[in-house]
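Project outcomes to date are best conveyed with an example. Our students and postdoctoral researchers have been running inverse folding experiments weekly, and each run begins with a structure described purely in tokens. The record below, which covers 367 residues, was selected by the lab manager from last quarter's runs and is presented without edits.
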């Protein structure tokens, strides 16, 4: 097992290199770029990414974008366009006066020391932006994953024991329906019903904390935090119940049909003892194996629209706005962090599988 883990850890840098190389190549052939984005913004034709959704305007964008190349703004020619000298100066500021291969190897060399560069527009280091936004995404992902597992595993066990019953059929229909509803649509429905959209005004619409956060006591801050996070967590968790519940149910049904269960029942063991002392460990292997994938999906996919809709300043929104602005350092920095976390979680999943059932030997499987 130790040799297998060492091999998996050694493959992480190679995998990350491949991911960055593929995405860097795609960026080079894709239309547009930070220079074009700045030029379009100077002409007043490109709104902020968040403004497209919320209808507002980003103060930071208006300040930082127009500050780029401010020494050459006198060369702006209005309806006649921008001078070539101004465009070349912008390319030099963004580093596009160098060849693509040179920029790529500089990127890789910097990433080896976790030097992720600076944002084109905010002039902040990418690592500081990620550290600033990461707690929001982690809190959303962890709470959503915790709720999904706390509900789906017991529900899946009950469904396996009562397979084919009315309870099993009704809950299956409900879960499939919830899985079919897109996250953003469910978020809008919750806002309309519970956030003062039309009916009730039980939960806040935006942010993770209230404006009076600084004057609240410790217990009041905890309650305020959970008050704000309730709807976003519900939105992220709703689509995860179906897959994990059905996975748990099918895993238990598969184990219940095996010969060792028949033998345990023949020995006079109670159904509860058979289920939790013998079946549980074997059936939970597939469920545990899916934990990192569930967490990664919630952290880096479901959280994007949730953070945008509820105005949660997290990592998903950071990457989304970076892609809209062509802020390449932030784009590749978030991609780098996403890749590392995902690969490390996969290794942790293998370790958890081995701890749950020591009979699993990945080294023998590879040979």
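After processing, the design step wrote out the following sequence:
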């Amino acid at each position: 097992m130790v040799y297998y883990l060492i091999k998996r850890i050694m493959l992480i840098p190679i995998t990350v290199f491949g991911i960055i190389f593929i995405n860097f190549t795609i960026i080079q052939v894709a239309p547009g770029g930070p220079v074009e984005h700045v030029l379009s913004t100077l002409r007043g034709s490109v709104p902020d990414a968040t403004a497209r959704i919320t209808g507002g305007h980003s103060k930071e964008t208006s300040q930082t974008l127009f500050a780029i190349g401010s020494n050459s703004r006198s060369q702006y020619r209005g309806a006649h366009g921008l001078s070539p000298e101004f465009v070349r100066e912008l390319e030099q500021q963004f580093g596009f006066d160098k060849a693509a291969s040179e920029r790529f190897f500089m990127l890789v060399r910097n990433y080896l020391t976790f030097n992720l560069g600076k944002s084109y527009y905010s002039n902040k280091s990418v690592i500081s932006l990620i550290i600033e936004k990461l707690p929001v995404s982690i809190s959303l992902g962890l709470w959503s994953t915790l709720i999904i597992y706390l509900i789906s595993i017991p529900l899946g066990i009950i469904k396996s024991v009562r397979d084919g019953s009315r309870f099993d059929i009704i809950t299956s229909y409900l879960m499939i329906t919830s899985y079919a509803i897109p996250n953003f649509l469910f978020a809008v429905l919750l806002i309309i019903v519970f956030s003062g959209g039309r009916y009730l005004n039980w939960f806040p619409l935006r942010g993770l904390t209230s404006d009076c956060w600084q004057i609240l006591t410790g217990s009041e801050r905890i309650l305020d935090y959970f008050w704000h996070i309730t709807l976003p967590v519900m939105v992220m968790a709703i689509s995860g119940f179906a897959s994990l519940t059905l996975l748990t149910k099918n895993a238990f049904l598969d184990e219940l049909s095996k010969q060792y269960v028949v033998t345990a029942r023949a020995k006079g063991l109670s159904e509860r003892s058979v289920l939790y002392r013998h079946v549980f460990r074997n059936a939970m292997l597939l469920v545990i194996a899916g934990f990192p994938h569930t967490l990664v999906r919630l952290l880096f996919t479901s959280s994007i629209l949730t953070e945008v809709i509820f105005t949660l300043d997290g990592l998903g929104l950071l990457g989304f706005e970076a892609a809209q602005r062509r802020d390449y350092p932030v784009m590749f920095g978030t991609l780098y962090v996403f890749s590392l976390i995902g690969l490390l979680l996969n290794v942790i999943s293998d370790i958890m599988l081995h701890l749950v059932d020591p009979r699993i030997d990945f080294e023998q499987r590879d040979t």
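Confidence is low (pLDDT under 50) at residues 49-59, 68-80. The first helix runs from residue 2 to 29. The training component of this project remains on track.
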